[in-house]
Amino acid sequence: xxxxxxxxxxxxxxxxxxxxxxxxxxxxxxxxxxxxxxxxxxxxxxxxxxxxxxxxxxxxxxxxxxxxxxxxxxxxxxxxxxxxxxxxxxxxxxxxxxxxxxxxxxxxxxxxxxxxxxxxxxxxxxxxxxxxxxxxxxxxxxxxxxxxxxxxxxxxxxxxxxxxxxxxxxxxxxxxxxxxxxxxxxxxxxxxxxxxxxxxxxxxxxxxxxxxxxxxxxxxxxxxxxxxxxxxxxxxxx
Amino acid sequence: xxxxxxxxxxxxxxxxxxxxxxxxxxxxxxxxxxxxxxxxxxxxxxxxxxxxxxxxxxxxxxxxxxxxxxxxxxxxxxxxxxxxxxxxxxxxxxxxxxxxxxxxxxxxxxxxxxxxxxxxxxxxxxxxxxxxxxxxxxxxxxxxxxxxxxxxxxxxxxxxxxxxxxxxxxxxxxxxxxxxxxxxxxxxxxxxxxxxxxxxxxxxxxxxxxxxxxxxxxxxxxxxxxxxxxxxxxxxxxxxxxxxxxxxxxxxxxxxxxxxxxxxxxxxxxxxxxxxxxxxxxxxxxxxxxxxxxxxxxxxxxxxxxxxxxxxxxxxxxxxxxxxxxxxxxxxxxxxxxxxxxxxxxxxxxxxxxxxxx
Lengths: 238, 358
Known about the structure:
The complex is a heterodimer of chains A (238) and B (358).
Chain A: H1 3-9, H2 11-34, H3 36-40, H4 44-61, H5 72-92, H6 99-126, H7 132-145, H8 147-150, H9 155-158, H10 162-170, H11 173-180, H12 189-194, H13 207-237
Helix pairs in contact in A: 4-5, 4-6, 5-6, 6-7, 6-11, 6-13
Chain B: H1 2-19, H2 22-26, H3 29-49, H4 60-71, H5 83-94, H6 109-122, H7 129-142, H8 170-182, H9 190-200, H10 236-248, H11 256-267, H12 283-297, E1 301-303, E2 309-311, H13 312-322, H14 342-357
C-alpha cells in the first residue's frame, strides 16, 4: 500500500491533518497581526524566531505518515535536514551573523526537532495507529512554547521571586531559542508593550546547559523509542 | 568690645568664604552635612552587601552603578582604597566581550555597557581607555541608522535600545548618551545629532516633534508613541531623562525642546512621587534622573507654575533623608523596574545625593 493510499484510507487522519493546518494558519495570522509593528520596525531576530518555529512546525506536518517515525535513522536525519533548512534561510537573508549564531541556531533547531520527533515516535509506537496522540503532544508543546504569553497577565502575582519567574521563562522552548539567538525577546516591542516582563528582573538559561539538557532528554527519548520499537517487533515476530 | 567682635567675625567670614564650595551656597549647609552622612550610610550598607566576587546583585549594571556611587562620593574613593573598589572593577572587566560590550547576560547589554564604561571612566585610570573606547563603539553600533536600513524619517531613527536589534527607548538612549558624554566622546560626533532625532520624537511637543501623536505639554514619553503610563503620557523620570539627552547632545538651554521640557518640569515639580507615573513606579529612577538633569541644567532653583521657588538640592536631600532606612539603604515598596533591589536603589540614591552636594 502506497503512502498516498494510506492517507486516503485514513479519514480520521485526514481530518486531524487539516484541522492542524487550520490551527497553524489561524495562529500565524494572529501572530502576524499582533506582531505587525514588530515586523515593520525590522526586528530581524523576532523574524528569525518565527522562521525557526515555522521550519519545525512545517517539518512536523510534512511528515504525515507516522509510520516513518518508528525509524530511528529517519528521525535523526529529518531533524538534521530541518536544521540545515533553517541555516539556509538565515544565509539567504541579507543580514550577516557571527559564526556562533549559525552554530547555535543550527543546534537549537536540530535539538528541538529531534526532541519533538523522538517523543512523537514513542507515542506512535506505544499507541500505534492513533496518530492523534502525536498531534496532541504537538499542541501541548505549542502551549508550553507560548507559556510566557498566556501567563503574562498574572506573572507578577505568580512569580513572586526571580527563581519562579525564571522557571516560567525557562520552560518555554521560545526562551531556549532566544538564548541561541542572543536575543532578549521578552523586552522586544510587543512583549514590552503588552506584558509586564520588561519591568521585572529575570535571567535566561545558560546556552550550554540548555543544549546539554535538551540533548540528554532527546537522547533518552530516542533510546527509549528504539527499545520500544525493538520490543514491539520482537513481540510481533514471535 | 562689640566692634572688636564684629571685626573678628568679618575676618573669619573673609577667610572662610573663599574656601567654601559653590554647593554650600547652593544648598542649606546643615542639610548638606546630613546628606553627606546619608551617602556614607548608604555606601556603608553597600559595603555590607557586596558579594565575594566584588559584585552587587551579581549584575554588571548594578555593580557599575554602585561603584560609581563610591567613586563620585564626597569622600572620593579610589582604587587605592582597597579591594572594595578594585574587586567590583575586576568583576566589570571580567565581563568585557570581544565586541566591546560589557555584560553578564544577553539582557540590557546597552545599559550594562553604558554604566560600566561610565564607572571605569570615573576611576580616572588610563589603563581602561581601550575598554572604554571599545564600549563606546559598541554602544554607537547599536544606534538605528542608515546602516541598519533606518531612514531619518523613521520614528526610531537615531534610537538606541537594550541591545541587539530591539526597539529603542528613551531610557536606554539617555544612559547611552550620558555614557558617551561622560567618557569623553567628541561632541561633534554624528551619534549625538542622530540621537537628537529620536529624543525629539519622544517629546510631547508638536512644534519640534513630527509624530502625529505628539501633544504639547513638553514632557517626554518612553518611546515615540508609547508610554507605560498610558497612551503617550509624559512622566517625570522620562522627562528628566529626555532633558539630560538634549543637554548632553549639545542642545542649548534656549532651544524650544529644552524650554518645553523645563516648562513641564516646572508645571509638575514634586519630590513626593514620580509625576505622571502609575502608583510609585520608577520613583528612585526619577530621583536619580532629576539630580543629574538639574545639575546639568545649572539652575539652583526652580520656580513652579504657582510661582513658588524651590531649591531642588534641598528638596531632594530632604526627601531622600526622610525615606532612608536606618540600616542605610533605600528601597521602593513598588518593586517594578527592579526598584525592589536595595543595592540598585541605594546606589541610585547615593549618586543623586552626590550630585546634590557637589
